[in-house]
Write a structure and sequence with these properties.
Structural class: alpha/beta
Strand content: 25-35%
Bound molecules: S-adenosyl-L-homocysteine
Largest sheet: 5 strands, mixed
Distance between the termini: 59 Å
């Protein structure tokens, strides 16, 4: 029904708290022993509370100093016994100053007589932020990894140093790892694909779910949503790419999980190169220790080609016709050589209000090399509401049929078409060239 269930147990109804599900910062040592314990309590026994358990003080438990049953809360390792409900408090931190194995930390806890369930986090110096070994250790022990500067004071905790390069700190109450130093920041540059949700790769979906901050051109940020209230959207103009890239690093260097969105693939005329350029130019070690990942998407040329058939089924050339960031002369030269090489062509950014004449000139160059019968595919808003796919010929193509939301595919000399059952046409470029094998 789309509503959240409230799941209660009889213990919860009677005592006002579910003993088997302690609040954040505490963990039950053994669920099976716990079930037995709660059923004894429900049968009418009274209970003693040992250790500090503020939430239990507020529950309606049948407390008695002489009770046979006891709830024990603490971080010292104990053998669970039948008459005891053992709850570990996550109030231990392991501070390391070099890479350590999970075994070293477990060993230290053991030597100090502390339970492994009490470990709340691993704390390391900021200089180890990029360490893959530490990341593995934290992952294996399933605790957060936090980084502190050399001058950080981690008080109030009592320290003990069992060796192994690990120093253990025991706090009076459960630790809140989010408040200790900072996490290693993450920056993911993602591609949304052409627009349709089913064409977005699962890794991108997962990344969007974990993001604290989402940066990008407003249209794409909206396309990537909806977002939760705790996620911050930073929408910017399409042209402020370098500024956006630097902003993303500033946020990630604070330990946040940041996503920069592009449509299609982020490495195709989009944000990935801008983000790497910003990093390359930076000497800030905090930027360089950010966990940076580029996640691919289905690019517009591929999404359009797939709908038309396989016009890019043989060698092809991808070009942006925008002369915003490169001289027009290089576009003409590359176009001329790509046509001479008989490559199929995919044009991104074919035309815009500020670049009205360029497509016409580009097509004049293509026409010097290709016949008017050469198949052309126009894909507008592919994978988005109102998408339009058209198949025509180079002879029929005019710049007026194209806008900035259109992908232009021009066939090579071998690209051919045939009718499909629905009245449309299939377009494909055979995989062979020259003599048919
Ligand atoms: N990174 C994007 C391309 C950005 S350049 C990608 O990989 O797809 C922007 C150009 O891509 C647009 O001018 C248009 O030519 C093309 N484009 C992007 N999305 C499109 C879509 N859904 N349908 C058709 N063309 C698209």
């Amino acid at each position: 029904l789309g509503i959240a269930p409230a799941i209660t147990t009889s213990g919860e109804l009677r005592f006002g708290t579910c003993l088997l599900n302690p609040p954040a910062g505490y963990v039950l040592a053994d669920l099976e022993l716990g079930k037995r314990f709660v059923s004894d309590l429900l049968a009418g026994e009274s209970v003693r509370i040992e250790g500090d358990a503020p939430w239990l003080a507020r529950a309606q438990l049948p407390e008695s100093g002489q009770a046979r049953l006891a709830i024990h809360v603490g971080s010292a390792e104990r053998l669970p016994v039948a008459d005891e409900l053992l709850i570990y408090s996550r109030n231990v931190l392991a501070q390391v100053c070099a890479e350590v194995s999970p075994q070293s930390i477990l060993e230290s806890l053991y030597q100090a007589g502390l339970a492994r369930q009490s470990l709340a986090c691993i704390v390391a110096p900021e200089t180890l932020m990029a360490s893959a070994a530490l990341r593995e250790t934290a992952l294996e022990l399933a605790v957060p990894l936090r980084f502190v500067g050399s001058d950080a004071a981690l008080l109030p905790v009592a320290w003990c140093e069992p060796g192994n390069g690990v120093v253990l700190g025991v706090a009076a109450a459960p630790l809140e790892p989010e408040t200790i130093g900072r996490a290693r920041g993450r920056l993911a540059v993602i591609g949304l694909g052409p627009g349709a949700a089913e064409l977005m790769v699962p890794a991108v979906k997962a990344e969007l779910a974990r993001a604290n901050d989402v940066l990008g051109y407003e249209t794409y940020v909206r396309m990537a949503g909806p977002f939760r209230d705790d996620q911050v959207m930073h929408c910017t103009d399409n042209r402020e790419e370098m500024q956006r890239a630097r902003h993303a690093f500033e946020l990630a260097a604070q330990g946040r999980s940041v996503v920069v969105v592009s449509s299609g693939d982020p490495g195709v005329f989009a944000m990935a190169a801008a983000v790497l350029e910003a990093l390359h130019e930076s000497v800030d070690p905090q930027w360089h220790s950010v966990d940076l990942e580029i996640l691919p998407g289905v690019s517009a040329s591929l999404a359009t080609a797939a709908q038309a058939g396989a016009p890019l089924g043989h060698d092809f050339c991808v070009m942006s016709l925008s002369d915003n960031l490169k001289p027009w002369s290089i576009i003409e030269k590359r176009l001329d050589l790509a046509c001479e090489a008989d490559l199929a062509l995919a044009f991104y950014n074919p035309i815009s209000r500020s670049r009205p004449w360029q497509l016409g000139v580009a097509l004049d160059i293509v026409r010097r090399h290709r016949t008017p019968q050469t198949p052309v595919v126009l894909g507008r808003d592919i994978g988005r509401p109102g998408q339009i796919l058209r198949t025509l010929t180079l002879g029929e193509l005019t710049p007026e049929q194209v806008d900035m939301r259109t992908m232009v595919l021009v066939g090579s000399s071998t690209t051919c078409t045939f009718a499909r059952a629905d009245g449309m046409q299939w377009v494909y470029t055979p995989r062979w060239y020259g003599e048919k094998p």
